[in-house]
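User: Please predict the structure of the protein below. I'd like the answer in structure-token form so I can feed it into my own downstream comparison script.

Assistant: Understood. Taking the following sequence of 65 residues as input:
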Amino acid sequence: MTAQGLQESSVYCPYCGESISVLLNPEDVGLDYIEDCQVCCRPIEFRLREQAGGWLEAEVRSDVE
């Protein structure tokens, strides 16, 4: 985790399939939000869940799913 409580994670873009690095905020658990892919610039929908030990898991999907 970073100093601000953010967790760095890698996810795969549902459009281009590239692995991208994202910062996950524990305050966003249970919320849906959108970030653009750093490679193809398409909008990725994120939903965060808290796992055992306080680690965050990001579920990602395209806006057409």
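That's the full token string. The first strand starts at residue 7 and ends at 12.
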